[in-house]
Amino acid sequence: MSGLEIAATCTLAELSRLPAAPGWAAHPLLFQCCTALYGSFKIWNVATVGGNLCASLPAGPMTTLAAALEAEVLIWRADGSDERMPAAAFVTGNTTNVLGTGDVLRSIHVPASSLASRTVYRKIALSPLGRSGAVLVGRLDPAGGFVLTVTAGTVRPVQLRYPSLPAASALARDIAAIDYWFTDAHGAADWRRAVSGVLGEEIRAELEGAALENGEHP
Questions:
Q1: pLDDT digits over 72-102, tens only?
Q2: Could you tell me where the beta strands, DSSP code E, fall in 62-141?
Q3: What is the β-pairing status of strands 96-97 and 4-7?
Q4: 83 vs 86: CA distance, rounded Å
Q5: N- or C-end of the chain: fewer Cβ atoms within 10 A?
Q6: How far is the CA of 115 from the CAs of 45, 47, 145, 194, in angstroms?
Q7: Whether the Cβ atoms of residue 154 and residue 189 lie closer than 8 Å to each other
């Protein structure tokens, strides 16, 4: 199976130091998502990728990373069976996921095609050291398909998919139509919707500019 296999027990410190392989255009996203979990080096050395996913907090940066890169998770079910499923479907709500009693999240597989994609990351919080209010990742794959992953401001990952980079108006409309926003101490639902629209357009424009600069059709 080509790509990157991440053990659930891999720490954020280990993931952040993973060297890039040839063709991994998305490699910077690994470190970017790790830094979204603010903490000392002590936390980075004990917090794990799988633990962050299983906590299933809306602002979980490993949820953002796995969903944005179209990762697949491997679950060891309590009945002895194995199940693979898209990471974007693993988290079902605020602190809820698909694991049942006795189930174990074993690993996360990132396909080579996602690692070869160009990515743009954006995060916003109400305070410099506060929990993320919204985290968005845009991914433009080598074939031209575009996926915007919206997290932290929604109770579960939301993905908007297009065969190519959409017009600014279309992306703005689709972000505004998302209905999974929530309000807590880290941001109101209407603020999260508004800032996600701004960040989404920044991502779209940056990817469009990079494509044009490289002589590609966006």
A1: 999 999 999 999 999 999 999 999 999 999 9
A2: 72-76, 82-86, 91-93, 96-97, 104-110, 118-124, 134-140
A3: unpaired
A4: 10
A5: N
A6: 24, 23, 14, 29
A7: no
Q: Which residues contact 76 (CB under 8 A, 6 or more apart)?
A: 82, 103, 104, 105, 106
CB-based contact 57:94 (threshold 8 Å): yes
Q: What tokens were used for 24?
A: 């991994």
Q: Which residue has the tokens 């050395």?
A: 45
Instruction: Name residue 196's amino acid.
Output: S
Helix (H, G, I), strand (E, B) or coil at 38: coil
The DSSP 8-state label assigned to residue 155 in this structure reads S
Number of alpha carbons in the 13 Å side-chain half-sphere of residue 6 = 28
For 42-78, write each residue's pLDDT tens digit. Answer: 788 999 999 999 999 999 999 999 999 999 999 999 9
CA distance 131 to 125: 6
- % of the chain residues with pLDDT over 70: 96
Residue range 142-155, pLDDT digits in tens:
999 999 999 999 99
Q: Coil, strand, or helix at residue 216?
A: coil
